Amino acid sequence: MSEKIFTVKGKGLKFDTIEDIKPHLEKLNAIPDVREIDLGGNTYGIEASKALADALTDKSELEVARLDDMFTGRLREEIPTSLNSILTSLLNCKKLHTIDLSDNAFGIATIDPLESFLSKHTPLEHLFLTNNGFGPLAGARVAQALEKLADTKKEQKSDVQLRTVVCGRNRLENGSMKAWADFLAAHGSIQELRLYQNGIRQEGIEHLFLNGLSKSPLLERLDLQDNTFTVKGARALSQVFPSWKNLKELGISDCLLSARGGEIFGQTLIDGAVLHNLEKLKLQYNEIEDRGLELLKNAVKHNLPNIKLLELNGNRFAEDHEFVDEITHIFEDRGFGELDELDDMEELSEEEETEQEDREDSQEVILKDAEEEEDQNVAQERSTEVDALTAQINKTEL
Asked: Three-state DSSP class for 279?
């Protein structure tokens, strides 16, 4: 396969003109039936990008395009034109199933060419968009483009399914979650979704779970680390979790699950079917306490027979807790499985434990009232933030 790969990755080259990039394009064109290109770690100007686009147009066997970190030092006005040239040419590559555009400062200014490509490229299976500076508005438009792609695939009777979407560190926030849920529901084929470090709060997480991920039965890997769940998000996760029969990895560390949220999720693991496929469970820094740990221990013992990694560092119990010892013994008896190093645990003082108990009692009353309201089919209050963003998106599209 190596003879089918063209790479200039990480060379720190600056391509401004056609002459600058010409020697490299000659090497690209000398590779018959090139399958993969890796252009990242260099910087491409408008003229060089057009020349590159011309060279890519006839690469009918191209399957993978790694285009991360391609515009460092470029003016904001340059990037849309350069990106448009490259992505337009890639529409001709009918076997191109994987594209990585991470670490490019797109933001809202560069969304048009990206949106156009994503809505049209039917061979797409794996998309990587991490650290692109989108924000909620551009992030919503990315999701809307992917929703349109589902329609395009149907119209063209394509049997190629979108399976992987990675969009971490992009400030997607609550304002784009309706669009992301709609995209997931439109495809129903996602096997891997990673939306870590996006500033999504509990209302957005809840919507994503209940309206998008609930309609993703093929899910194998989910990474939502460093967003905010609280009890609301934990309840939504627990509601849809049983539908993911193929789940292999769940990452929800740094999500403020809360003591009660940890108990809710732990109980879900116990109450459901045996999860033969789940191998990695990441729950660091979530304020999980003794009762949540006990439930997790029971889940490991009875319902997680093939778990290989359980991450619990940074929660609220002692590293030498008896339930930690029991989990370790379960792994030893099986001959596989491990806990992460519990070197940063947050133990509560007696005063904090009393305050926590009082707070949980208060939360129970609030949750009971909320559940009674749900039973009465009270309409969910609309988020003014989401409404404002939706109006802005619609205005942009007109």
From this structure: coil
